[in-house]
Design a protein that fits this description.
CATH topology: Carbamate kinase
Shape: globular
Helix content: 25-40%
Strand content: 15-25%
Largest sheet: 9 strands, mixed
Catalytic activity: UMP + ATP = UDP + ADP
Radius of gyration: 17 Å
Mean pLDDT: 96
Bound molecules: uridine-5'-diphosphate
EC number: 2.7.4.22
Order of helices and strands: EHEHHEEHEHEEHHEHE
Protein name: Uridylate kinase
Oligomer: single chain
Function: Catalyzes the reversible phosphorylation of UMP to UDP.
Number of domains: 1
CATH superfamily: Acetylglutamate kinase-like
Enzyme class: transferase
């Protein structure tokens, strides 16, 4: 096992099945739970930061007339819905979990308290962070970088639709090639879309390596944990 304490960033869209009109595809949630079980058995400590893009994004709302700040809070609430969906799927598999939110909503989740989060992880519970950073004008990528820094994670695993960072969009450009490894500086100067600059910068300052990997590859997360080089490693 290459990493012990991980923060996994899953976008809201990754949980979605547009063809079936589902915001939360039970098969995808079950796939996550099955891999988490293996990773916990390997001895990993797992924290999750989930996005909200399958339900609401502040910027998209602003385009349609919602005030940006209000829209961002709506987006943060969307991440809490997703956090609860993941919690439910993990509990169905007998995995112990806690949802912790950056905006207090004590009837449904614990407030985020760093020391408590670390204690949960040490006890083998999966901690799911909801409500992003709790602040508008941020993203859940930044929330993932922030939480990874706060809890002293060994890695930030960023799940995407492709198996790493490419020179160009591999979906539209067949000449695009994948980086096995790339520096934070290079990722920043190339303005790579895979994560926002704030998230890259925070990881760079706090020495948190980022692995960008294919969420839909069978056992992809388990392989990253085991040290496979199938994704892209972002480091100094
Ligand atoms: N958001 C926010 N502050 C945060 C995290 C998220 O305001 O710290 C809002 C923002 O409007 C964002 C939405 O929540 O568009 C959903 O998060 P994100 O777009 O990062 O989700 P993803 O694309 O990963 O599904």
């Amino acid at each position: 096992m290459k990493y012990k304490r991980i923060v996994l960033k899953i976008s809201g869209e990754a949980l979605q099945n547009k063809a079936k009109g589902l915001n939360h595809d039970p098969d995808i949630l079950a796939m996550v739970a099955a891999q988490f079980k293996q990773m916990l058995d390997m001895g990993a400590e797992i924290a999750v930061v989930v996005g909200g893009g399958n339900i609401f994004r502040g910027l998209a709302g602003a385009d349609k007339g919602t005030d940006r700040t209000t829209g961002d809070y709506m987006g943060m609430l969307a991440t809490v819905i997703n956090a609860m969906a993941i919690q439910n799927a993990l509990e169905n598999e007998g995995i112990q979990t806690r949802v912790m939110t950056a905006i207090a909503m004590p009837a449904i989740a614990e407030p985020f308290i760093r020391r408590k989060a670390v204690r949960h992880l040490e006890k083998g519970r999966v901690v799911i962070f909801g409500a992003g950073t709790g602040n508008p004008y941020f993203t859940t990528d930044s929330a993932a970088a922030l939480r990874a820094s706060e809890i002293g994670a060994d890695v930030l695993m960023k799940a995407t639709k492709v198996d790493g960072i490419y020179t160009a969009d591999p979906v539209t450009d067949p000449t695009a090639t994948r980086f096995e490894q790339i520096s934070y500086q290079n990722a920043l100067s190339r303005q790579l879309k895979v994560m926002d600059a704030a998230a890259f910068s925070l990881c760079m300052e706090n020495d948190i390596p980022i692995v960008v990997f294919d969420f839909f590859k069978e056992n992809g997360m388990v392989e990253v944990l085991a040290g496979s080089d199938s994704g892209t490693l972002v480091t100094h």
